[in-house]
Amino acid sequence: MVHKIFxxxxxxxxxxxxxxxxxxxxNNIYKKTLHNEIMxxxxxxxxxxxxxxxxxxxxxxxxxxxxxxxxxxxxFAESHxxxxxxxxxxxxxxxxxxxxxxxxxDYATIKPTYFNTGCCCFSDGDITGIExxxxxxxxxKWQNKTAGTSRIILEEKAxxxxxxxxxxxxxxxxx
Length: 175
Hints:
Radius of gyration: 17 Å
Shape: globular
Largest sheet: 3 strands, antiparallel
Strand order of the largest sheet: 5-6-7
Structural class: alpha+beta
Helix content: 40-55%
C-alpha cells in the first residue's frame, strides 16, 4: 500500500515535472513495435477474445496504431477522391511519422483483437487509456492544460460491432 501511495503521489508527479521517462522500451521504436506485433499475432489466433495491454507509449485500437489508422483513412479518402480529407490526413501523418514509423500494409486483413492503452504519462503530462463503458470501448486521452483536465475520445467502437467484426472475419494474423 505504501508503494502505491509513493508512486501515485510522489514518483509520478516528479517524473512529469522533471520529464523523466525511464521506460526503455517506450523510447525504442523497434521494441514497442515488436511488442505490439507479438501481442497482435497471439490475440488474432485466439477464439472469442480481445487482448488489452499497455504501456508501450504507442496506443493501439482495433489492432492498428494511430498512424496505421490514418493510412487506412487516407486510402478511403483517395478512393473517394476527397481532396480536402486527403490534405488533412497527410498533415496529421507528417506529425506522427517520426514517432510511429512502422506500418502494416494490408489493413483490410487486420482482426480487431488487440488494444494497447498507450501510456500512463507522456512527457507533456497527457495520459492515454482504454475505457469500456455503456457497451463501448474507447481509446481516450486525458490532457492537463491550463484550463483544467479534459478527456478526449480518440477512437470509439460499440462492443457489439467489435464482436461481430471479429466473428465475421476469419483473417490471418498480421505478418
